[in-house]
């Protein structure tokens, strides 16, 4: 067996063990093989929350590196994409299984699947957004234009949705989305939002509250963090760096990014600020028809104090998630 086969065999046997992957990445680096960078960046993104402001750039970079990788190799390294997906079933992702919110129950974590920005499905979506922005259409249903296999490759929407200033109805029925970008708040004409049966969509960005005309929504509420029926716990919101120091110890990858020193607009006041990820909170608010768990990235405690009061029957203060948070009883 070659060294390389040995590494892949070890990773296959124990996919969660980081050491095998990092030793293999070092071995690839020594041979100037860009797949070493792929392994490190893949691990870094798995440890990075979906609302991190540099995630979009990181996923784009990972997609570029992916182009030189063989499918059989990716099936081992990016195993999460090779496994058969039970999407469109109520229990597609299994995030809430075994989570009771009690102390000893496992800690919930975000979906951190990376969007492949080099796949045809993503390029098609970018084109559809440009077309819709150019012709000023009022109804946008991009997933209807794709077959199921293509649709499943779409895990988020591009930031360019900010250009859809005329769209009143956004239909995302039956999607495989795991997150909606904050730029949805710039869709100023939006009246109706339908991500119904998107069972892996467990939260929304606070920026959605900026859509002044949004009055109708159809959301699969059982898939939401903190929903009144099951009260699944919210993921814990960490502060500061998310990626273990040392993971990206290579000259070629910009480690600075994941240390939480990038600029972003505040979810509340809109002012750009240097994001050290210190003022991130959850708040459950009524948005159109439904109460949604909203993730806030604020510039200051003052902006957190300016948040509207949470909906009754939900946690009554902005919070940081995990088990320390006492939710009201189920069904209340
Ligand atoms: Zn899930
Ligand atoms: Zn602010």
What's this entry about, in short?
25% of the residues lie in helices and 11% in strands. With 332 residues, it is of the alpha/beta class. A 4-stranded parallel sheet has the order 1-2-3-5, with no helix packed on it. Strands 4-9-8 form a 3-stranded mixed sheet, with no helix packed on it.
Task: Describe it.
With 332 residues, the protein is α/β, with parallel strands linked by helices. It folds into 2 domains: 3-84 and 240-265, no CATH class; 86-236, no CATH class. It has 9 helices and 9 strands. The strands form 3 sheets. The chain has a 4-stranded parallel β-sheet, with no helix packed on it. It has a 3-stranded mixed β-sheet with strand order 4-9-8, with no helix packed on it. Strand 1 (139-140), helix 8 (148-151) and strand 2 form a beta-alpha-beta unit. Helix 2 packs antiparallel against helix 3 and helix 3 packs antiparallel against helix 4. The model is unreliable at 86-90 (pLDDT under 50). The protein binds zinc ion (2 copies).
What features would you highlight for this structure?
11% strand; binds zinc ion; 9 strands; 9 helices; alpha/beta; single chain; three-stranded mixed beta sheet; 332 residues; 2 domains; four-stranded parallel beta sheet
